[in-house]
Amino acid sequence: MIRLERRPEASQLMSYASPLIAIALMLIGGLLLFAFLGKNPLEGFIVFFINPISDLYGVSELLLKATPLMLIAVGLAVGFRANVWNIGAEGQLIVGGIAASAVALYFYESEGIHILVLMVIAGAIGGMLWATIPAFLKTRFNTNEILVSLMLVYVAQLMVSWLVHGPMMDPDGFNFPQSRMFEDPALLPLLSDENRLNFAFVMAIGALLVGYIFMYRSFAGFQMQVAGYAKDAARYAGFSAKKMIWIGLLSGGGMAGLAGMSEVAGPMGQLTEHVSNNYGFAAIIVAFVARLNPVGIFFASLLMALLYLGGEQAQQYLALPSSISNVFQGMLLMFLLGSDVFINYRIRWKEATA
Amino acid sequence: MTSDSDGDLAPRLELHGITKIYPSVIANEDVSLSVKRGEIHAVLGENGAGKSTLMKMIYGVAKPDAGEMKWEGEVVHVENPAHARSLGIGMVFQHFSLFETLNVVENVALALPGNPDLKQLAEQITEVSNRYGLPVDPGRLVHALSVGERQRVEIIRCLLQNPKLLIMDEPTSVLTPQAVRKLFDTLRQLADEGCSILYISHKLDEIQELCHVATVLRDGKVTGDCIPSEETPKSMASLMIGKELPVPEHSAPAELGEVRLQLKRLSKESNDPFGTHLRDMELEVRSGEILGIAGVSGNGQQELLYALSGEIPVDDPDSIVICGAPSGRDLPDQRRGNGMGFVPEERLGRGAVPRMSLTENALLTAHRSGMLKRGMIQFDKISAFASKCIEDFNVKCGGAEHAANSLSGGNLQKFIMGREILLTPKLLVVAQPTWGVDVGAAAFIRQQLIDLRNEGTAILVISEELEELFEISDRIAVIAEGRISPAKKLADTNIDEIGVWMSGMWDQAVPAEVVAHD
């Protein structure tokens, strides 16, 4: 008979091993899935996980895809550590993208570095504004930030759709639902002529560093961790719960908005209905696989980016739908939650007693 | 109820070599004891000695890993509490298991098999309650009952099933001294009728007064059997803790200094529907004194502590004055800034973060004493502070980097107490300083409080242990039904008077003296 038994103390080892186990199980699950779909599992594995990064260009694409994930995940992790559950980064990303696009279009056909600077600021503020709504409602009326932030994603999606069909539509664009293509002054500088990797990657690494210092060295980060571990202890110490809700939501919103800016001013070069590629939701998985740790977020973002690229490759070479990426993401999260049980519990094999 | 107590019959309950091993601890090892018919048998031991685990096994809540249990001479394996009840074993738990929104009859009915007729049951309850001197109205809702009344409901619930063995787990910790005496009368009457009683406690005087035989547990093992009436509290204590009971040194009250805490008509509606509203509380604590607040739990202690600490601020800033500053609306952080320290009743999760290291837990309240530099944590300073706290206050632990939840309750309490004391508060508010702490650590903590008072700190202690308050306080007041009594000097009162006050009756007796005192 198998029995789950509570560990006397949470296992540190298991808390780090759990993401690795989840990744391994996801790979096994993926191979089984390929076999089940009538594909050669080994070939599927190579197409999915090896081909995308078999050359330098592939690696640069990986970093490009990982950039918004890193930005969002580190912002979310700040809040998650205090049990502030911002599930709406997808919407905050869209609003950040809209705000940055508005700046780009306002300065259309003009020059200067100020355009990009303003776009960065506008993107971050746009995301924060969207996160202000759940933060205000939570601190004022004690509403559930999970529901409010999630529902606002759909509002943001409808809003961007309306904008690119209306006020922000390209006047010379044959009625396609998209904005003008941005000009060079409104595009993030590329790091190399060989590929599409841009300055946003540098910003993401910077964000991880700042995030690390905030979480592990600053008193504010400590306060948020206390609130996450033991709410009553935070209240006993006199840490303001409202302040933490604001910091948690605004950091997630700001970073998501920045990610939206980096998309419209980066690989997309314009605003469309599809600003986001589900990055806002994928980053939640990234943050948890990474144990809310910025170093972990770096690697987990690369893994998640690989799932995106692998999905595209599988579409091209294996004739599988691109939603296969979502299946892998889902498996990763599910296996992670499953193996996280063993941080606090262990299995006992017990013979049935009379 | 049987009355066939006879020396020739097999003992009612016999345990042989009972052992219970939990993942991290051996709760009971080779425990044997024997309870005769009509015997009141004490199981004596400190917190964590394994008393409750042993009782749970007798009642079928847990199963032993080794050993044998005999019931009236027959070997039995108690499968679950229902099985235990069918054998004739009843248990009154330390923490009551009653539904607050149901009335007494409904609560009793829930514990009985089948679908009893409520009207008839109410009559039975009245009958039993009259017979054993346990007055309680069957129609009342449980949330409106006092703690003592709730315990009566639990006892009546057991008695309705005509138990042959009644297990009482720390029954007096929630009762006034007068209520304790009534309970003892009931228990003696039951024993005279042949019912055996297993009485779990760590209070030596009670066991001496009530019990025929005592089995002493320490670290899960039996360290001795004795006849309490032939022992002294000292000799039983040494069986229980393995050494003599230390007594704190309490010098004469120092000269009183300035008022550090003042409550002026403090009132607060409780948010909890079953909470206690605080009403017109008046109190003064001066520098260099320990003021003890006695009371039966659930009479507003929690609410008062939340209001004092600032975890739930009150509306009128002037109703709580801390070191001269009107503080009613202040948050805990601001009150600490004014010189207050606070040790809450719950250590894990409130006074300390279970998963964080002792160093990080020191930062929880010590952060304002130079541990931060432009918002960044000075890790060297905070870890030096934590190490000093561990050393000065004799905290047994693996080191400052170990998590708070790896410490025993007593050691964590010493750490939290040490942290607050090292911050040199002008006013220290302490709730249940030694609750769940072993006797040695309790004596140490009391001595620390007395030393701190000698250095001129004003100390407010809220405790449910009357003996403790009489040991350390200079003045003593009582909280009952959300009101607070005038404080009396220790020399001018005694346990009996405080016991009467604990049921809320002080207005009639004393006002003249209080006026004179002021």
The assigned structural class of chain A equals mainly alpha
State the shape of chain B: globular
User: CA-to-CA gap between the ends of chain A?
Assistant: 13 Å
Strand residue percentage of chain A: under 5%
Overall pLDDT of chain B, averaged? 86
Cα-based radius of gyration of chain B, to the nearest Å: 24 Å
Spell the H/E element sequence of chain A. EHHHHHHHHHHHHHE
Our count of helices of chain A gives 13
CATH superfamily of the largest domain in chain B: P-loop containing nucleotide triphosphate hydrolases
Number of DSSP strand runs of chain B: 23
The whole-angstrom Rg of chain A is: 22 Å
Question: What is shown here, in short?
Answer:
Chain A is mostly helical.
Keywords:
heterodimer; A: about 350 residues; mainly alpha; two-stranded antiparallel sheet; 2 strands; about 70% helix; B: about 525 residues; alpha/beta; Rossmann fold; 2 domains; seven-stranded mixed sheet; six-stranded mixed sheet; 23 strands; disordered C terminus
